[in-house]
Specification:
Helix content is 36%, strand content 22%. The radius of gyration is 15 Å and the shape is globular. Strands 2-3-4-1-5-7-6 form a seven-stranded mixed sheet, sandwiched between helices. It has one domain (2-183): 3-Layer(aba) Sandwich (Rossmann fold). By secondary structure, it is α/β, with parallel strands linked by helices. It is built from six helices and seven strands, in the order E-H-E-E-E-H-E-E-H-E-H-H-H.
Length: 188
């Protein structure tokens, strides 16, 4: 089983925030494949499907970003899933908008959702980082990530989420290198 987690904050207030691009990517994966309806359990919205001959559980923690690890920890303990079989999709300030990087493990780099995950499931999971850019001043970061994408961002956000959804079977069949190759050269 593969557990694919999108990080974000629940509710309409946050739906289009930069911090919610993980939720947006998971929603696109849900649309792209034959997932069942979302149900609420494990302090999350979850949906299941078979993708590339493997069961996939999509997860959108409803604990708010800073406590995401609580929900994901419950899931991996219940299903007895190794942290290496968890893919977390999240926003990344240090990357230009639309640029994607993926790796296994690493630090939280100040991302509170990742800090929570690290403490609940170990830091050894796949991280798919989607660049949202930086406001230029660290004092503006909180307001920036909790603000909505602008209308001019819509095209690259949709394209990025679609590309991640299309590359998921490559990851499942051939691993992280195939996934990143399918995504091609990230936009700058």
């Amino acid at each position: 089983m593969l557990v694919v987690v999108g990080l974000g904050n629940p509710g309409d207030t946050y739906r289009n925030n930069r911090h919610n691009i993980g939720f947006m990517a998971v929603d696109e994966i849900h649309r792209h494949f034959s997932f069942g309806p979302w149900s609420k359990k494990f302090q999350a919205l979850v949906a299941e499907a078979v993708v590339a001959s493997e069961k996939v559980l999509l997860v959108k923690p409803q604990t708010y970003m800073n406590l995401s690890g609580q929900s994901v920890g419950e899931i991996i303990r219940f299903y007895k899933v190794a942290s290496e079989d968890v893919v977390v999709i999240h926003d990344e300030l240090s990357l230009p908008p639309g640029k994607i990087k993926a790796k296994i493990g690493g630090g939280a780099a100040g991302h509170n959702g990742l800090k929570s995950l690290d403490s609940h499931i170990t830091p050894h999971y796949v991280r798919v980082r989607i660049g949202i850019g930086h406001p230029g001043n660290k004092d503006q970061v909180s307001d920036y990530v909790l603000s909505n994408f602008s209308g001019s961002d819509k095209a690259w956000v949709e394209e990025t989420c679609d590309n991640i959804a299309r590359a998921l079977p490559d990851f499942m069949n051939d691993g992280l290198e195939a996934f990143t190759k399918k995504l091609g050269v990230p936009r700058n």
